[in-house]
User: Fold Alkyldihydroxyacetonephosphate synthase from Thermasporomyces composti.
Amino acid sequence: MDELAHADLGPRPFARWSDPEDDATPVRGVPVWLARRLGDLTPRAPVPISAIPVPPSGLSPDAAAEFRQAVGPAYVETEPEARLAHAGGQSYTDLVRRRFGYDVAVPDAVIRPASHDEVLSVLAVATKRDVAVVPYGGGTSVVGGVEPVDGGHRAVVTLDLSRMDRLVDVDPISRTATFQPGVTGPRAESLLAEHGLTLGHVPQSFPRGTIGGFVATRSAGQASTGYGRIDDMVVALRVATPVGEIRAGTGTPNAAGPDLRALFTGCEGALGVLTEVTLRTRPTPEERHYEMWAFGSFGEGLDTIRGLVQDVDAPDVVRLSDEEESATTLATQGPKGRLAALLARVRGLRTPALCVLGWEDTAEGVRRRRQAAARSLRASGAIPLGARAGEAWRRHRFEGPRQRDILLDAGVLVETLETATTWSRLRDLYDAVSRALRDSLTAAGTPPVVMTHVSHVYPTGASLYFTVLARQLPDAAEALEQWESAKAAANEAIATHKATITHHHAVGRAHAPYLVHEVGELGVTTLAAVKAHLDPRGILNPGVLIQASPR
Amino acid sequence: MDELAHADLGPRPFARWSDPEDDATPVRGVPVWLARRLGDLTPRAPVPISAIPVPPSGLSPDAAAEFRQAVGPAYVETEPEARLAHAGGQSYTDLVRRRFGYDVAVPDAVIRPASHDEVLSVLAVATKRDVAVVPYGGGTSVVGGVEPVDGGHRAVVTLDLSRMDRLVDVDPISRTATFQPGVTGPRAESLLAEHGLTLGHVPQSFPRGTIGGFVATRSAGQASTGYGRIDDMVVALRVATPVGEIRAGTGTPNAAGPDLRALFTGCEGALGVLTEVTLRTRPTPEERHYEMWAFGSFGEGLDTIRGLVQDVDAPDVVRLSDEEESATTLATQGPKGRLAALLARVRGLRTPALCVLGWEDTAEGVRRRRQAAARSLRASGAIPLGARAGEAWRRHRFEGPRQRDILLDAGVLVETLETATTWSRLRDLYDAVSRALRDSLTAAGTPPVVMTHVSHVYPTGASLYFTVLARQLPDAAEALEQWESAKAAANEAIATHKATITHHHAVGRAHAPYLVHEVGELGVTTLAAVKAHLDPRGILNPGVLIQASPR
Assistant:
């Protein structure tokens, strides 16, 4: 996966995903087009980082000394720069706070262990000294998963796992690879490419995200239909907890009681720190082919892709946009509206639903599977738009966060949220969440554009991914409240429809209050009982996954 | 799945799997052939059931009255017949005890709830009255999962779930079906067949096993390569615990923290009682095709089936026998050794390894996938033996337990055990476990026949299933000790090789002491912490999964 191996972005700027000057690929017409739809926007540059106040580190000298002993003096950083660099994740609200210099929290120190044993030592010191520990991979959480929250403890440190970036072992016979948690997506692909292998796990966070983060958040990549979710790839885990080590997984599925891999896949650093992850790999595909199709409507598209995943042989990537998202694509990509005009004039499709389909396989596999899918697609009346549009999507698929930077500069509220449910409930859920978002933001005086796609399909159901854009309110507190209200309305709609609060973004702090709708009071207290057993002082990522109980 | 819908066996005899008189399919030459290999066997009929002493029920009148209130007076049975009918599972040691009338434990009562709420009520009474509860589906456990063990509580009751046998709901769009736990395998297939659907989950226990049991033991069916393990089919669960209800699963995979479905899939009734199970279904396959191939050796077969599952498109059923098991098949099945003679004379294969491959798919799917597999098989030098031998295996695939009855009557020790590991470690594990079994039984003066097959293949590894036969020692205590020593030797070999203690038989009481090798001390105490939270008095299936701690 050569192209993937080179997706690494280098250090992240403070209030952006990527440095605009480093951005080799120009981001195209989206912002201009959107500005027209959202009304008068007020461009807004981030405040300089020097304007962000950083309080002195609250770490006691004794605790600091013991942490230094655990990982070496150079790897306990208390300077403002390192602490600011770990001031939360990449959600819209994280970025708003950093851009406005409003309510930016920083950890008391950043600790960079180099091994499983060093992680165990750090957790022992933290337990003894009552210091909260926030495990940190690529810092790409969009659900408040890496915010430096002390949870009532004496201090909070960020446990930056970037030094643990080795490929520990490859088993070419069993096609598994064991990584340390801090290996980024591109680095993992680059290391595996030397063995002719790939993970094929490409979430939007891929360029900065880490193996540990992918597993801790139970993520799903854009090609999850073909390669599986990260849950499907986890063969074994090694976990450091405040009370010792857990190893889960023996190389194959088995029946040895509840599968403990599932307790730590998705633990979000609240039950332990992943220190070694063994994943299933596959041979690098011989061929990749992406193409685009147009359906008469989102509904027709849903029925057809359901047929593909239930009865045919689903492509490895399936991404169906609703009419609104398709209109944006048609208006802002490709040869200036030509495709839209063609669809309207020749096919009578004025509001099509576009769909990207991708195959990564042997040449023969791609050929055969494309043919089988094409038969179903044509039977449903879908119109092929060819490989150029599909390949364009693939080339630009990690650009979302860069486009967001530009939109934020332009004064746009821009955020995404996602859920999933069964095929039979999908349409109602889509309507309810879209309506909740529109109603909330319209009531705030900022009518939004809400665009949706389905990008993860299963035999039983599918995900829904909403992108929301609106004119950002000018004041930081107002801007935060503007989005938080809309998000709460969407969450209520999700809970009402018994869908999941998160298909692939994880729970973090943002969704923790809604977990009870999904797993019930007893589900939440069961997770809390596990946490109490493994983390008796509650130092691990307080408030993530399980809401903070009063201390 | 018509054939499957008719596999139901009716009531189970006390010391056998099936009533020999009901046995429509004659079991062929295996016993005769085996007798020759094992030396002088002494035929041994079970003692009459009337010879089994049944103590009076130890249930207090108050507890009995409250249980009657919970489920209705007719459904709390304390008569000897009902209690004897629930005296443990179907392991070799279970059957030896019942056949010899030696150390047969019976519950103090059998309770048959009709609903989730009744199960909750029973658990509340049991908690209040300090009565152990053993959840019971088809009673087919081979690991001591349904033995009536009081675990130091005042009494023990068996919670027979056979009245909870409804198909609660079918969602044809999402292709899911919700069952009560007591639905047997054949009944589930029969109910689904009305909707054109199937589960395709056919473990050896299928004719008597139940949906609840399949999920509680995290089982894998013979067609797991195609249809997936039960873990892969579980969409949602409803669980009754002594402290209330848990619902897990929202219809699709998600990222909402640790997947709680995995805590109850494989909970073996020790963490809760499954009261509703929603499973993924598939359309009834258009065509089924089974065929047999011969490899030059077990090793060649392993390399080739690994290639099928890693690089081609594995058949839905893959079952590769080692040379010893293949010799038994050739000696005892088919037209009296003709196949063996043919292989030896024409192909020079004196000790072939036979392999059953099966496809269940659309006619086109079967054709295409068979062709692709055949290319790989021929390239590896495998010899096609045709569909007749494959179909013979399919027709007789649920006969193992009947053959065992006959072997037990003939005075044979006959038991199976299984494990799994990665492809790279599989051969060493095979050698070590086979050797441990042979050495132990040879030391007991009863040199065994040990036959092995691989029947569940994954991209990362595969299962190993051992069938052990030896001359049974004449005394009940000696016979039990004879097998328990061999099993312990095998378990040690499994632990030494870091393989799983059970690929699909579950932990039960038989494997509970070995779980610590697999998930570590902290893994075991974490499960115990979950149990303490959900079952604070420890009434649920004491000693199963988690070894009894001193009370």
